[in-house]
Amino acid sequence: MTLLAVDNVVKEYTRGAFRRQVTFRLEAAFRVDQPEIVGVMGPNGSGKTTLFELITGSNEPTSGRVLCMGQDIHGVKARERDRLAIHYHQSYQVRRFRRRKPEFLLEAANSDYPMVHLFDEPQFNAQDGYIGFMLEFFRRLRDEGRVVFVCLHPTERYHLDILREVCERFIFVERGKIALFPGYAAALADARVAAYLGEGARA
Predict the structure, then answer these.
(1) Stretch 134-159: mean pLDDT, rounded?
(2) Three-class SS of residue 153?
(3) CA dihedral 7, 94, 153, 73 (to 10 degrees)
(4) Cβ neighbours of residue 108 closer than 8 Å, sequence gap 6 or more
(5) Considering all CA atoms of the chain, what is the largest pairwise distance in Å, rounded to the nearest integer?
(6) Structural domain tally of the chain?
(7) Range of the structural domain that residue 130 is part of
(8) What are the residues whose beta carbons fall under 8 Å from the beta carbon of 104, sequence distance 6 or more?
(9) Is residue 83 within 8 Å of residue 113, measured between CB atoms?
(10) What is the mean pLDDT of residues 126-131?
(11) Residue 58 class from Cβ within 10 Å (0-12 exposed, 13-18 middle, 19+ buried)?
């Protein structure tokens, strides 16, 4: 079974009461068929957090669907969605979301423990072995059959070292579009990624 399928998902933000104008559009389509650690990169405002919110069901897509273990995340009871996919934002706080449909209209999650773990710009302490602890935690989740997303905005050199060491493939998000890469070298070979990371990425 495919663990996660982002099935032609589109999210549009609009403004204007009478003549609606699209102010931002995110498009995403990919799947994860086996446990792995996926690195997510991209400029601020590119749509990374929106992508994570769509995967966890805390944001409704304009079209498309997200399947976690074959179950449509947006059709699952709101209080049980974190049994399928969970979003940790910065200081490992779990992202909360508003309920848009009555719970009795939604189905129960078919899992008791999250299959997908999304870490959104986690804070790493560079001292006292904390980074090693977190990398081991990511690997343990993967070895237990989970999917791990690690989103970092590489403001420090060691952020790149973390992504290069622990991530098995990469998603690059820019202006609402995503690109998939099978590894760090393949990502760095893309001109957009290289420009985003800067000269220090090749050292």
Answers:
(1) 92
(2) coil
(3) 0
(4) 76, 77, 80
(5) 56
(6) 1
(7) 4-202
(8) none
(9) yes
(10) 76
(11) buried
Which tokens belong to 56?
Answer: 């966890």
Alpha carbon distance 152, 92 (integer Å): 13
Q: What is the dihedral of CA 108, 111, 142, 185, to 10 degrees?
A: -30
pLDDT at 199: 72
Q: Is the pLDDT of residue 59 over 80?
A: yes
Token reading at 67:
């399947």
CA-to-CA separations, 91 to 39, 40, 86, 94, 144, in angstroms, rounded: 18, 17, 14, 9, 23
pLDDT in the model for residue 37: 98
**In this structure, are residues 84 and 76 in contact, taking their beta carbons and an 8 Å threshold?**
yes
pLDDT band at 108 (very low <50, low <70, confident <90, very high): confident
User: In 101-156, where does DSSP find H-type helix?
Assistant: 130-143
Q: Which residue has the tokens 């990398």?
A: 135
The dihedral formed by the CA atoms of 124, 125, 130 and 131, expressed in degrees to the nearest 10:
40
At residue 104 the predicted structure's pLDDT band, cuts being 50, 70 and 90, is low
CATH number (domain holding residue 148): 3.40.50.300
Quick count: other Cβ atoms within 10 Å of Cβ 2? Answer: 13
CB neighbours of residue 186 within 10 Å: 13
SS3 content of the chain, % helix, strand, coil (to 5): 30, 35, 35
Phi, psi (rounded to 5 degrees) for 37: -110, 120
Q: Is 68 helix (H, G, I), strand (E, B) or coil?
A: strand
Q: What is the pTM of this model?
A: 0.89
